């Protein structure tokens, strides 16, 4: 644990800049107990004044980034961070000027190549120092820990209490097949409707534990499967819980389950010698996108079966693709070039020793 | 007319004579043969195809077997088809002309680029779009930006970055799509299961092609001119067979360039981008039209810095929790207001011509009696450096413009470099050049040392860009058709 004293060593920082700090210094008297009303309850005292503290406090959600940067750089001294902040940041006269000065410095950092890396992210040096500074300051006050954790915690709707929000007459569609969008809307999402009467305007739909875009009118709530979630859910057969939540009251009203059914196998089951295929996936992808990407860009595909012949190979269309028999069944690599056109790729298992073939199913490229 | 030598060889037993003999009925051979036959109704055109209408048998596929060393060309076995329509039997239909700068010599590379320019191909590209059924021939990315607000990053904002557009063929299966037209063309004979075994040369020109079905008699075809359109590997294989002495210090088939500079576009997914929601740098369909904008280097960077051309596609994906999309709500970090997503960045990279990346003949023979090929695929490490510079440029441009941040998810490491795979585009081994010392074919696609042998294939590409090659292959074939017919662009004989 780094002590406050150690952190502040080198904290003649501010004086070093020789700059005005007019607004920043207002209320910067550290002999008074910290006033946390303007910092969302966070106790944070940079010594640079309330205005700057408020600014740092406003950088919600950046603590993991700050922590990662501080750790990677081995930064211990707040003073050195403050020192490195640009003069224009120090001379800001009000919140607006401070935000503008930071934004200007961030932009200039990128232009001048003054960047830092955190977890692979390329950020401006100023960004890293600010989130690092915030992290170090927050860490000095153990009371901040809970608030910081709450900042970054994705609100878990699963924690909401079950309860009643509004009467539900009906909803739909209730199912689809792998890879098949339904009720497709203009922006490409699959639309779902719910006949709730009198749902509050702030109510939201939750699908598979995630809040999704929702629009509420007096008699109907509409929502659906969007973007990445749509891809993920439509690629994987299963049952997905749907609920209506009221984030203000922290209540969750279960609606039902949306079912994604597997695609039918291309043809009938194979002859004896191949066991039944329990599961396989991914069953769909998008043009140009190899899900479960392998180092060579191919899409990793798995077939689960209890008694896969040792010499089993996977045939895609007419081509045998790289595959290997595993404990769980078989894994194979579908070359990325096979995913360039929308359509359906028929997958068949083949055993050269016996000449037997076992249809697996159809991989949908949307 | 289409005839199958495996089924009815009798009418051809005495051989054939024609004005132009084209070998290989993929998109190159089909578009060339039909155009030429239409331009010259008084000529007889013969189109020879090794495969039939169905997929090749195991025996036929074995003819393509190639040994390899160097980096693993893992797509080798799936990268070509032996049937009417050629490899369009399973191509993806991604289509785009080369960028203007792709025709230009890159000052930091050691080989000259195209001896022709975009203006020489413009009219042919337009017609190639029809052949490939693209539903449009406009490749201006700006136009798309205007039509689909929010689909692309704003122009002018992104220093050092350019934007381009792909279109998509349905994809047209040239065999099925054009078989009725081949059937209907009276002065054209397309022979299926006609494997080219040998080209016979006499005094600086070719006189005959010897062909045979797998189980049948040979047939000799005499022609005034010959075109090899057998794809980017078999065409080179035949030219290497034309060497009567095992030397490569001369011109044309004896050029030291023949078989060298084998290239394929390669790709990988090295990064994630935090950027405005709803970007469409991936294939999307709008009113029946399939389009795909991509991000590239700007022309200035390509020309001024001698970069490889490369393109980036974006696919929305689950965010990295370290820097969630909500991070972009911090206006003080320069972000423009709006909703943000995270995207996986997929790159396709232009390889520079690599002398030691090559096709060579081995002493093993296939059942046709042809020596088998050996492939050594190489990529210059500097090609990866350039690709990562493009990524840096994108990250910097988005960050400066307040439109995002970049995360490198895979470093430019030996492991990454060792594992990239090809796109099944066989380019470079019969390169086109203005000077005989720089290539195998001249700007009219004629093999330098043979007065009547031409090549229609991506093997003639001397610089590769990142665009998939088929649209350019067809454009070159249409241009060759007019050259052979003796007409000027778009004209009549
Ligand atoms: C999986 C896959 C996806 C692809 N996706 C795209 C894409 O999205 N966009 C794109 O632009 N390109 C794509 N390509 C590449 C595209 O298929 C080729 O660029 C194109 O088919 C080349 O056309 P070609 O006429 O030169 O050769 P081919 O199409 O290969 O045709 C050559 C013909 O010559 C015949 N032949 C070979 N040897 C002999 C012989 N000895 N005698 C007689 N005939 C012979 C063959 O049977 C064949 O019919 C893809 C390729 C693959 C494998």
Can you tell me about this structure?
The complex is a heterodimer of chains A (366) and B (493). Chain A has 366 residues and is of the alpha+beta class. Chain A has three domains: 8-155, no CATH class; 161-261, Immunoglobulins (Immunoglobulin-like), CATH 2.60.40.10; 268-365, Sandwich (Immunoglobulin-like), CATH 2.60.40. Chain A is 27% helix and 30% strand. In chain A, the strands form five sheets. In chain A, strands 3, 5, 7, 8, 11 and 12 form a six-stranded mixed β-sheet that branches. The longest helix of chain A has 18 residues, at 95-112. The two termini of chain A are 53 Å apart. With 493 residues, chain B is of the alpha/beta class. In chain B, the strands form four sheets. In chain B, strands 1, 2, 3, 7, 8, 9, 10 and 20 form an eight-stranded mixed β-sheet that branches. In chain B, strands 11, 14, 15, 18 and 19 form a five-stranded antiparallel β-sheet that branches. In chain B, strands 5-6-13-12 form a four-stranded antiparallel β-sheet. The longest helix of chain B is centred in the C-terminal third of the chain and has 20 residues, at 381-400. Chain B is elongated and about 85 Å long. The interface between A and B is large, with 54 and 60 residues. Strand 2 of chain A pairs antiparallel with strand 18 (405-408) of chain B, so a sheet runs across the interface.
């Amino acid at each position: 644990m780094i002590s406050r004293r150690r952190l502040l060593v080198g904290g003649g920082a501010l004086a070093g800049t020789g700059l005005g700090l007019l607004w920043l210094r207002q209320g910067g008297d550290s002999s008074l107990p910290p006033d946390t009303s303007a910092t969302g309850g966070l106790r944070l005292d940079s010594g640079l004044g309330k205005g700057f503290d408020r600014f740092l406090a406003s950088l919600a959600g950046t603590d993991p980034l700050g922590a990662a940067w501080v750790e990677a750089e081995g930064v211990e001294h707040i003073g050195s961070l403050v020192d490195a902040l640009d003069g224009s940041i120090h001379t800001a006269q009000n919140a607006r000027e401070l935000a503008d000065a930071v934004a200007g410095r961030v932009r200039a950092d990128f232009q001048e190549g003054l960047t830092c890396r955190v977890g692979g992210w390329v950020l401006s040096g100023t960004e890293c120092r600010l989130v690092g500074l915030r992290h170090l300051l927050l860490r000095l006050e153990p009371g901040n820990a809970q608030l910081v954790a709450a900042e970054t915690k994705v609100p878990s709707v699963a924690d909401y209490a079950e309860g009643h929000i509004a009467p539900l007459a009906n909803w739909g569609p209730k199912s689809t097949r792998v890879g098949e969008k339904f009720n497709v809307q203009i922006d490409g999402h699959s639309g779902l409707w719910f006949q709730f009467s009198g749902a509050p305007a702030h109510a939201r739909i939750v699908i598979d534990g995630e809040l999704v875009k929702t629009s509420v009118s007096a008699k109907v709530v509409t929502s659906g499967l969007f973007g990445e979630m749509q891809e993920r859910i439509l690629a994987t057969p299963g049952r997905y819980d749907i609920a209506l939540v009221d984030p203000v009251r922290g209540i969750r009203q279960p609606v039902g389950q949306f079912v994604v059914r597997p695609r039918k196998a291309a043809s009938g089951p194979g002859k004896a010698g191949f066991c039944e295929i329990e599961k396989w996936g991914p069953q769909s992808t998008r043009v140009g996108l190899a899900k479960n990407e392998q180092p060579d860009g191919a899409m990793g595909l798995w077939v689960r079966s209890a008694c896969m012949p040792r010499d089993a190979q996977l045939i895609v269309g007419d081509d045998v693709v790289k595959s290997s028999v595993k404990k769980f069944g078989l894994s194979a690599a579908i070359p990325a070039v096979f995913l360039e056109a929308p359509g359906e790729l028929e997958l068949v298992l083949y055993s050269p020793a016996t000449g037997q073939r076992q249809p697996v199913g159809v991989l949908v490229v949307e | 007319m289409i005839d199958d030598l495996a089924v009815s060889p009798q009418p051809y037993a005495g051989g054939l004579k024609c004005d132009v003999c084209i070998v290989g009925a993929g998109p190159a051979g089909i578009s060339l043969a039909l155009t030429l036959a239409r331009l010259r109704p008084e000529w007889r055109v013969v189109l020879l195809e090794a495969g039939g209408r169905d997929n090749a048998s195991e025996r036929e596929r074995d003819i393509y077997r190639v040994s390899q060393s160097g980096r693993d060309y893992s797509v080798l076995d799936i990268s070509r088809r032996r049937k009417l329509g050629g490899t369009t039997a399973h191509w993806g239909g991604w289509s785009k002309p080369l960028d203007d700068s792709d025709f230009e010599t890159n000052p930091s590379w050691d080989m000259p680029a195209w001896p022709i320019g975009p203006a020489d191909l413009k009219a042919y590209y337009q017609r190639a779009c029809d052949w490939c059924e693209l539903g449009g021939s406009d490749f201006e990315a700006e136009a798309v930006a205007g039509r689909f607000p929010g689909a692309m990053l704003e122009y002018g904002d992104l220093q050092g970055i350019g934007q381009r557009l792909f279109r998509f063929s349905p994809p047209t299966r040239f065999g099925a799509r054009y078989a009725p037209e081949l059937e209907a063309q009276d002065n054209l004979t397309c022979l299926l299961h006609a494997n080219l075994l040998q080209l016979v040369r006499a005094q600086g020109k070719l006189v005959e092609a010897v062909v045979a079905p797998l189980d049948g008699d040979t047939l000799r075809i005499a022609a005034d001119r010959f075109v090899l359109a057998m794809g980017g590997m078999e065409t080179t294989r035949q030219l290497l067979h034309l060497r009567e002495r095992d030397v490569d210090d001369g011109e044309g088939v004896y050029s030291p360039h023949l078989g060298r500079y084998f290239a394929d576009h390669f790709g990988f997914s090295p990064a994630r981008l935090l950027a405005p929601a709803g970007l469409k740098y991936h294939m999307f369909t709008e009113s029946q039209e399939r389009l795909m904008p991509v991000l590239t280097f700007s022309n200035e960077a390509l020309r001024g810095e001698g970069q490889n051309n490369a393109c980036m596609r974006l696919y929305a994906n689950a965010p990295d929790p370290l820097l969630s999309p909500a991070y972009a709500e911090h206006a003080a970090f320069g972000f423009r207001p709006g909703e943000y997503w995270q995207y996986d960045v997929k790159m396709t990279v232009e390889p520079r011509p690599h002398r030691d990346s090559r096709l060579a003949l081995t002493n093993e023979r296939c059942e046709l009696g042809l020596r088998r090929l050996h492939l050594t695929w190489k990529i210059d490490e500097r090609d990866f450096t350039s690709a990562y510079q493009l990524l840096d440029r994108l990250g910097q441009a988005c960050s400066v413009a307040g439109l995002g941040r970049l995360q490198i998810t895979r470093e430019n490491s030996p492991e990454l470099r060792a594992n990239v795979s090809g796109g099944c585009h066989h380019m470079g081994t019969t390169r086109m050049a203005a000077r005989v010392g720089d290539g195998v074919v001249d700007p009219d696609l004629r093999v330098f040392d043979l007065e009547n042998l031409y090549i229609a294939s991506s093997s003639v590409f001397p610089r590769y860009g990142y665009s998939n090659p088929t649209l350019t292959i067809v454009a070159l074939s249409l241009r060759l058709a007019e050259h052979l017919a003796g007409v000027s662009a778009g004209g009549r004989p």
